[in-house]
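Lecture notes, part 5. Sequence design as translation. It can be helpful to think of inverse folding as translation between two languages: the language of shapes and the language of residues. The source text, in structure tokens, appears below.
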């Protein structure tokens, strides 16, 4: 299932969100966040907030289609990238809402965004898209920060225990969308400078990002205890938590 326009991106995200609600699939947390970011991108295009609004829609569609391909490929038992395989198979595990969100963001920004940036500009100069590249990342970062600030609506102990967790140097706590953005841009530069080696560069990058995903769901023991305690107190079913996220992001 692939999109051709940003409206079709939103339509497919609606399908994934409803499917995940009906099956209590925690992969729906990322879909809820991603849908809101896409709606904000659409509004930005309508209001001419980007340097090149037509190009931004192109980037948005190509970007989303990588996520859709991974989601539906894995659902149909087809191979996908190692980064997305780790993120999507985590849907069968018991992790924090925040961990599921970070797994999706990790695969989508750290692996997909650099590839998509090159596919979007084709033969145009890479530097010309950097401002809009940063803009779409800021939208995602702002939405993720908003989720973190409202996580108490899902887990009443989140605000109490997360400061304790920050004492531990671990990828779950240290993960930064800004750092991921910078890494994605550097990756795009590598692909741009050496297109003949793109296949190998993508394979190497995929392995690196899959390893980071593994660390996101396998933290050090003490931090794991803290995260398990937070998860124990998370309210409700997957569906109800998805609906809470929708309300907080509306």
């Amino acid at each position: 299932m692939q999109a051709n326009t940003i409206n079709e991106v939103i339509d497919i995200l609606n399908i994934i969100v409803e499917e995940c609600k009906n099956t209590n699939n925690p992969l729906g947390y990322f879909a809820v966040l991603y849908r809101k970011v896409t709606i904000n991108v659409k509004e930005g295009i309508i209001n001419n907030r980007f340097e090149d609004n037509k190009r931004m829609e192109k980037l948005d569609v190509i970007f989303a289609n990588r996520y859709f391909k991974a989601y539906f490929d894995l659902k149909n038992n087809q191979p996908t990238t190692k980064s997305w395989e780790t993120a999507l198979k985590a849907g069968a595990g018991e992790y924090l809402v925040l961990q599921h969100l970070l797994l999706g963001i990790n695969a989508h920004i750290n692996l997909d965004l650099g590839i998509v940036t090159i596919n979007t500009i084709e033969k145009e100069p890479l530097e010309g898209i950097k401002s809009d590249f940063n803009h779409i990342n800021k939208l995602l970062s702002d939405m993720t920060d908003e989720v973190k600030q409202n996580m108490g609506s899902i887990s009443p102990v989140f605000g109490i225990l997360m400061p304790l967790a920050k004492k531990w140097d671990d990828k779950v706590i240290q993960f930064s969308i800004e750092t991921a953005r910078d890494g994605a841009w550097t990756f795009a530069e590598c692909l741009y400078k050496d297109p003949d080696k793109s296949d190998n560069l993508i394979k190497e990058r995929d392995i690196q990002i899959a390893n980071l995903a593994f660390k996101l769901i396998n933290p050090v023991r003490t931090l794991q205890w803290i995260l398990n305690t937070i998860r124990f107190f998370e309210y409700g079913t997957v569906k109800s938590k998805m609906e809470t996220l929708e309300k907080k992001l509306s």
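The translated text above is only one of many valid answers, since several sequences can fold into similar shapes. The CA atoms of residues 83 and 209 lie 6 Å apart.
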